[in-house]
C-alpha cells in the first residue's frame, strides 16, 4: 500500500548516512551532523519565541532531517530550511503563525540580535520561506503527517502508574517527564530517521529509569515488559539490528 | 535508494498528460489530464503560490496543506484518492481521481426518483468512507452533499479535505468552531464549542440523510441562530438532561422552548427513523459513531442497499460544451440571472420549502441581483438540471464489479473533478443580516 511505502522510505540504515546528498557533495559526516544540529537548535529557538508547543518543534525537526536526506546542505542553508520547516510545521500541526511573525523571529535569531528591526532583512526571510516551501514539500514527498514518541510516553505514564517497582509517588509521571526531556534532546540528532517513534519512546523510558534507579519489568512471565507497552521490539531498542 | 527529488518529480510529471483547464478555485487551478500508461482520466490540481489573501504573504494555502496531509493518509474506495503529488517549476501539483458529479447535483435533479434502497446505499458508502477517516483520527469538518462526489461506477467518494484536521485522544483545545457549511453544522459548533470531535461529522451526515429523504436541505438558512431555532423546532429544544453541558458552551443563551414534535419522517421505516435520531442527537457524546451506525439494523433490513452501479446518476445535458462544467465553475454574476423564491417558510415546520423548480425570471434591478447572488448559486444549479435532457449517458457503461467496496479503475471514465468553491461560507455567516429576502 502506498501509505506503508511512504512511511517505510523515511527509515534508514546506519550506512545510508554515508550516501546522503551532502556527503556526495563532499561534506564530512561530522560536519553534516553539526549543521543538522544547528538547524534544529535554530528551530527550537524560533519556536520558543513564537510560543509554539513541543509537537510543532518535533515536527519541524523531523521535516529538517528528512529534507536533508533528499537535498544537500551545501545547496540549501540549514537556517533557511529550519525557518521554512517551522512555518510548514505550524500549518500541519494546526498551530498557525503569520508569515510575518515567523520571518521576523527568524531574522532576529539568525543575526543573534533580538533588537533587530530591519524591514529589508524581514522581507528577505519572507522571500526565503516562500521560495523554499515548495522545495520542502517536494523533498518530503508530501508526507506531512508525523507520528512522535510523545504520545507513546503518555501511554507509559498511564500504564506504569500501577507498577509496583516504582515506589515514589507520581513515579510514573516523573519517569515519563524525564523521558520526554530525553526525546527533546534527541531531536538534534537524526534519530527519527533511524527508528520508529515507539522504539525511541521505550529507549527514552529505559534511560530515564536507569537515571533514577528504577527497575522496570523485563520478564514477560511477570506481566507486560516495558518495551511491549508500546509494542516495541527489544532488539531494536537495544540497537541490535536495523 | 536516494532518488533525487528533481528526478522523482520529473518521473511523476511524465506519467500524466495535462490537457485542458476545467476550473479555478481559491487556491488551485484544476486541469483535466490522463495517465499516459493506462489512459485513465485524472484531475490535476495546480496549487497557486503567493496568490493567497493577505497580500500573498502566507505561502501555500493552509487548506491545501491540510488536504495533502489528510489525503496522503487515507486510502479507501469511498474517499477521493490522491494518486500523486509533484512539484514542477516551483508549483505544486496534486493528481486526483477524476469524478464528474456530486450528490448535490443528483438531489437537485428532479427527474430522478429516489428509492429507499438508493438512500441506504449512499448512506452506507458515506459512512464507510467517514469511518475510515475517523479511524485515522481525522475529522473532515465539511461534510455536505456537494462534497460527496459520485464516480461513473456509482461509488460515492468523500472529497474536499480543506478543513480536515487531526483530533487526538488528548483534549485538543481552541479548535475553531467556524467550520462546516452552516446548514450542516452541528449544534455544539453553532454554540461556539472549541473542543469537539468526530461527532460533528456525524451530525452533518444526519442532515444529509434527511436531505436524501426530503430532497431539500434540512436546516437551511442564512443565520446561525435561525438554523439553531429550526433544529429546536424540528427536534424539540434539548433539556439539560438531554444534553448535559449545553449551558456551559460559549455562545449559549436562553433558548425558546419547543416541545418535541411528531417525527419529521413519517414515511420512513422505523429503523431509518431510529438511525436518523441517533445521528441528530444534540449531545455529541450520545451521537452514534460512524462505526456504530454501520452496524445499525437499518442497513440489514429490507430493502437492501442498491448496488452502486444501479444508483441514479446525474446526467449532463449534451447540447453545448458549457454545460459540461457545473454552474459553480462560473463566476456568480453569471449565475444570478434568476431571483430566488423565498427560501424558507417563516415560522413553518422547521424545514425549508423545496428549493423549488419554479424559478422565475428576475426583475432587472441590479442591487437585487447583487444581493441575491449568494442564494442563486444553488438555484443556478437547479436551472442546469432543468435544462438537461435525459438521453445523455455517453460512455458511461455498465461494467461494474460485484463487490460494493471494489474500487474500479475504469479506463474510459467520463468524469469530472470539481474544484474548491470560493469561501462563501464565512461570507454567508457574516452578511446574513444584510441580505434580506429581496424577492419578497
Question: How is the topology of this model organized?
Answer:
The complex is a heterodimer of chains A (242) and B (440).
Chain A: H1 2-8, H2 21-24, H3 29-49, H4 54-67, H5 78-92, H6 99-110, H7 119-139, H8 149-159, H9 171-186, H10 191-194, H11 197-211, H12 234-237
Helix pairs in contact in A: 3-4, 3-5, 3-6, 4-5, 5-6, 5-7, 6-7, 8-9, 8-11, 9-11
Chain B: H1 5-15, E1 16-24, E2 28-35, E3 41-47, H2 62-73, E4 82-88, E5 91-97, E6 101-102, H3 103-108, H4 116-135, E7 138-139, E8 148-150, E9 156-158, E10 165-166, H5 187-190, H6 199-214, H7 224-235, H8 270-279, H9 290-294, H10 332-335, E11 338-339, E12 360-361, H11 366-371, H12 373-387, H13 424-430
Antiparallel strand pairs in B: 1-2, 2-3, 3-5, 4-5, 6-8, 7-10, 8-9, 11-12
Assembly state = heterodimer
Write down the CATH class of the largest domain in chain B: Mainly Alpha
Tell me the helix content of chain A: 55-70%
Order of helices and strands of chain A: HHHHHHHHHHHH
Structural class of chain B: alpha+beta
Main beta sheet of chain B: 5 strands, antiparallel
Question: Which superfamily, in CATH terms, is the homologous superfamily of the largest domain in chain A?
Answer: Cyclin-like
Output the strand order for the largest sheet of chain B: 1-2-3-5-4
Strand content of chain A: under 5%
By CATH, the superfamily of the largest domain in chain B comes out as Transferase(Phosphotransferase) domain 1
Number of domains of chain B: 2
Report the C-alpha radius of gyration of chain B, rounded. Answer: 22 Å
**Unreliable segments of chain A (pLDDT under 50, ≥5 consecutive)?**
none
Corresponding CATH architecture of the largest domain in chain B = Orthogonal Bundle
Mind telling me which CATH architecture of the largest domain in chain A this is?
Answer: Orthogonal Bundle
| Distance N to C terminus of chain A | 22 Å
Shape of chain A: globular
Largest sheet of chain A: none
GO cellular component, one term (chain B): cytoplasm
Biased composition (Basic residues) (chain B): 416-427
Domain Protein kinase (chain B): 16-299
Biased composition (Low complexity) (chain B): 331-340, 353-373
Amino acid at each position: 500500500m502506498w501509505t506503508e511505502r511512504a512511511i517505510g522510505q523515511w527509515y534508514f540504515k546506519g550506512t545510508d548516512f554515508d550516501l546522503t546528498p551532502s556527503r556526495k557533495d563532499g561534506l564530512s559526516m561530522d560536519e553534516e551532523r553539526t549543521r543538522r544540529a544547528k538547524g534544529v537548535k535554530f528551530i527550537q529557538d524560533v519556536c520558543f519565541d513564537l510560543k509554539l508547543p513541543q509537537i510543532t518543534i518535533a515536527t519541524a525537526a523531523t521535516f529538517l532531517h528528512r529534507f536533508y536526506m533528499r537535498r544537500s546542505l551545501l545547496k540549501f542553508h540549514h537556517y533557511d530550511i529550519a525557518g521554512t520547516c517551522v512555518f510548514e510545521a505550524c500549518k500541519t500541526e494546526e498551530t498557525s503563525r503569520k508569515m510575518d511573525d515567523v520571518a521576523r523571529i527568524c531574522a532576529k535569531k539568525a543575526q543573534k540580535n533580538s533588537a533587530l528591526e530591519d524591514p529589508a532583512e524581514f522581507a528577505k526571510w519572507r522571500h526565503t520561506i516562500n521560495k523554499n516551501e515548495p522545495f520542502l514539500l517536494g523533498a518530503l514527498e508530501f508526507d506531512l503527517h508525523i507520528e512522535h514518541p510523545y504520545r507513546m510516553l503518555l501511554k507509559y505514564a498511564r500504564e506504569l502508574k500501577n507498577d509496583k517497582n516504582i515506589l515514589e509517588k507520581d513515579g510514573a509521571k516523573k519517569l515519563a517527564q524525564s523521558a520526554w526531556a530525553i526525546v527533546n534532546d534527541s531531536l538534534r540528532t537524526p534519530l527519527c530517521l533511524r527508528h520508529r517513534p515507539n522504539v525511541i519512546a521505550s529507549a527514552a523510558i529505559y534511560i530515564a529509569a536507569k537515571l533514577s534507579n528504577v527497575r522496570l519489568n523485563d520478564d514477560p512471565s511477570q506481566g507486560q515488559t516495558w518495551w511491549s507497552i508500546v509494542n516495541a521490539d527489544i532488539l531494536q531498542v537495544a540497537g541490535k539490528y536495523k | 535508494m536516494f532518488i533525487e527529488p528533481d528526478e522523482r518529480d520529473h518521473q511523476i510529471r511524465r506519467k500524466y498528460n495535462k490537457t485542458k483547464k476545467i476550473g479555478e478555485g481559491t487556491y488551485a487551478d484544476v486541469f483535466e489530464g490522463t495517465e499516459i500508461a493506462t489512459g485513465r482520466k485524472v484531475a490535476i490540481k495546480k496549487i497557486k503560490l503567493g496568490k493567497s489573501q493577505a497580500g500573498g504573504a502566507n505561502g501555500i494555502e493552509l487548506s491545501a496543506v491540510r488536504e495533502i496531509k489528510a489525503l496522503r493518509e487515507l486510502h479507501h474506495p469511498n474517499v477521493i484518492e490522491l494518486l500523486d503529488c509533484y512539484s514542477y517549476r516551483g508549483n505544486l501539483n496534486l493528481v486526483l481521481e477524476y469524478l464528474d458529479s456530486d450528490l448535490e447535483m443528483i438531489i437537485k435533479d428532479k427527474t430522478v426518483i429516489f428509492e429507499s434502497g438508493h438512500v441506504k446505499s449512499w448512506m452506507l458508502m458515506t459512512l464507510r468512507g467517514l469511518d475510515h477517516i475517523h479511524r485515522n483520527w481525522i475529522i473532515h469538518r465539511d461534510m455536505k452533499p456537494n462534497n460527496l462526489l459520485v464516480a461513473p461506477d456509482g461509488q460515492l467518494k468523500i472529497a474536499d479535505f480543506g478543513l480536515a484536521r487531526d483530533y487526538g485522544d488528548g483534549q485538543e483545545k481552541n479548535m475553531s468552531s467556524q467550520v462546516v457549511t452552516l446548514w450542516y453544522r452541528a449544534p455544539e459548533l453553532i454554540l461556539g464549542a472549541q473542543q469537539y470531535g468526530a461527532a460533528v461529522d456525524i451530525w452533518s451526515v444526519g442532515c444529509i440523510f434527511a436531505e436524501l429523504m426530503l430532497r431539500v436541505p434540512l436546516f437551511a438558512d442564512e443565520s446561525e441562530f435561525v438554523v439553531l431555532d429550526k433544529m429546536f423546532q424540528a427536534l424539540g429544544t434539548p433539556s439539560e438532561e438531554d444534553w448535559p453541558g449545553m449551558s456551559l458552551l460559549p455562545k449559549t443563551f436562553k433558548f425558546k422552548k419547543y416541545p418535541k414534535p411528531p417525527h419529521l419522517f413519517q414515511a420512513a421505516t422505523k429503523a431509518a427513523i431510529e438511525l436518523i435520531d441517533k445521528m441528530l442527537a444534540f449531545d455529541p457524546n450520545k451521537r452514534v459513531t460512524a462505526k456504530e451506525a454501520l452496524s445499525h439494523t437499518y442497513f440489514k433490513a429490507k430493502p437492501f442497499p442498491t448496488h452502486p452501479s444501479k444508483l441514479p446518476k446525474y446526467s449532463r445535458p449534451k447540447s453545448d460544451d458549457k454545460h459540461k462544467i457545473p454552474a459553480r465553475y462560473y463566476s456568480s454574476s453569471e449565475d444570478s440571472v434568476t431571483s430566488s423564491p423565498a427560501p424558507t417558510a417563516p415560522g413553518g415546520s422547521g424545514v425549508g420549502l423545496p428549493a423549488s423548480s419554479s424559478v422565475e425570471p428576475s426583475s432587472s434591478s441590479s442591487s437585487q441581483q447583487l444581493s441575491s447572488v449568494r442564494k442563486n448559486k444553488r438555484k443556478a444549479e437547479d436551472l442546469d438540471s432543468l435544462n438537461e435532457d435525459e438521453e445523455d449517458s455517453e460512455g458511461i457503461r455498465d461494467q461494474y464489479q460485484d463487490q460494493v467496496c471494489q474500487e474500479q479503475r475504469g479506463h474510459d471514465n467520463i468524469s469530472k473533478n470539481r474544484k474548491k468553491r470560493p469561501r462563501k461560507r464565512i461570507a454567508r455567516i457574516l452578511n446574513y443580516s444584510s441580505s434580506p429576502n429581496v424577492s419578497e
